[in-house]
Design brief:
Layout (H helix, E strand, L loop, with lengths): L1 H27 L6 H9 L1 E8 L2 E10 L2 H15 L3 H17 L1 E8 L15 E6 L5 E2 L3 E4 L5 H6 L9 E7 L6 E9 L3 E8 L1
Antiparallel strand pairs: 1-2, 2-3, 3-7, 4-5, 4-8, 6-7, 8-9
Helix pairs in contact: 2-3, 3-4
């Protein structure tokens, strides 16, 4: 009888070990954003850092919220929040209306002096505009600071770090011509140009 128990112990350890391994694998598994959403986010995000004398002058990252990105965002949001079909349709209608009214960007800016990170101020030290494929310079309709930066915003746009910089929502006139669109931030501190190729 004792010998049989000795044979059972390694089996029990193996079974409990497998269960522990499953729990561990579940812990380290990424349950956040899907690879599909991350791929679309990466495709429509640009970033540039300007240095001077080995110091960072400015770092700007921007995501172009065009039709492809907006669709991926809505799908990911619906998946995470388990929205009903009716709720999804309402959000899609709102997003379609927003895209018809403006071209939008989500922007994160880090400037060492936070007082110079003032994109949303009336008398900002920065000039912000788009240059479309026709060479036209297009002024923004709105530059709004994103406040508060919620956990949802940080999860969907992981490059945003509210402890170091600020996030902004930029709106430009809609229906920019297909081709290259350059988002420009320029001023006495630095010039940043982020190129996007639109379909």
């Amino acid at each position: 009888m004792k010998r049989r128990l000795w044979w059972l112990l390694p089996c029990l350890w193996a079974v409990s070990g497998c269960a522990a391994l499953d729990v561990y694998l579940d812990i380290v598994r990424d349950k956040g954003l899907t690879p599909e959403y991350r791929a679309v986010l990466e495709r429509w995000t640009r970033s540039q850092t300007v240095y001077s004398l080995f110091e960072t002058r400015v770092r700007i990252t921007a995501t172009y919220r065009n039709e492809e990105f907006s669709r991926a965002y809505l799908q990911e949001h619906a998946r995470l929040y388990r929205l009903t079909e009716e709720e999804q349709q309402k959000r899609e209608a709102l997003q379609t209306a927003a895209l018809a009214e403006s071209s939008e960007f989500i922007v994160y800016a880090y400037v060492p002096g936070r007082e110079t990170n003032d994109f949303d101020r009336q008398q900002s030290i920065w000039s912000i505009f788009l240059v479309n494929d026709l060479g036209e310079r297009v002024a923004p309709l709105e530059v709004r600071r994103v406040e508060p930066v919620t956990q949802v915003v940080r999860d969907f746009f992981p490059y945003i770090n509210p402890y170091y910089g600020f996030a902004y929502h930029l709106r430009f006139p809609p229906n920019q011509p297909a081709g290259k669109v350059t988002l420009v931030f320029t001023g006495v501190i630095a010039t940043v140009e982020l190129d996007f190729i639109t379909p």
